[in-house]
Amino acid sequence: MRLPEWIRTKNHRRLHNTKQVLRSYGLSTVCEEARCPNIGECFSRPTATFMILGSKCTRNCGFCFVESSMPGPLDPEEPERVAMAAKEMGLRYVVITSVTRDDLPDGGAGHFARTVYAVRRYLPDAKVEVLTPDFKGNVSALNTVLSSRPDVYNHNVETVPRLYSVVRPQADYRRSINILKYIKKIAPEINTKSGLLLGLGETLNEIIDILRDLHGAGCDIVTIGQYLRPLRINLPVVEYIRPEVFERLRLIGMGMGFKYVASAPLVRSSMNAEEMYNSN
Fold this sequence. Notes:
Layout: H1 15-24, E1 28-29, H2 30-33, H3 39-43, E2 49-52, H4 78-88, E3 93-98, H5 109-122, E4 127-131, H6 139-147, E5 152-154, H7 164-167, H8 173-186, E6 191-198, H9 204-216, E7 221-226, H10 243-256, E8 260-263, H11 273-278
Parallel strand pairs: 2-3, 3-4, 4-5, 5-6, 6-7, 7-8
Antiparallel strand pairs: 1-2
């Protein structure tokens, strides 16, 4: 399917400056690894979403471009390098995500916490958002990340329950909802956030049901964007959702009582994360 006219990304300069900083510290970003369509806009600001725990994922989600294979050992110096890079880039808001590491006993939760602590040391005034995998629902792992006191805890549901067996075969929708519910119960002062991608064959009513579930779980912020196929090996786009449908979903979400709903074709979970936080 050809891209419709409403999905267009701009060419930006100064990308090499951000890439140079990232390469000098040997860091990965989800912006690059997942082929995010907004990389030009974000890198030119500059900002980036740091991807820790390596660049290889133990899961194989149908929508994702990140390589699926057995990861290598953890790099104990990675948390400090993330913090140093964030400081050099002058970030006021740092987003940290990761691949899924089902091979690790804690799923990499301790590494997440160490990275947050390192950022706090180098940038004590910066806000920190974590976007974590589900840790197989391990409460101890969730508590480890929560102990580092991120300002925002993000965990994406990605799609509707009916499509999980194809889109996220190793994940569980209800588990993800329960994770968000648990975080809000244990740390109500932390903003919770989740996102989903449209165009994989879901219906409007299914999306609205997800919004109800997220609101019921105490989720504060929701992001809704259009799925764009990274490679031919990934799932095909079933439908390009028109901008007016995204706007309708934004209004529905705000009407439910979310603090913030970002809904547009090129919206991504970590894009404009600082603006979303400051709007609360």
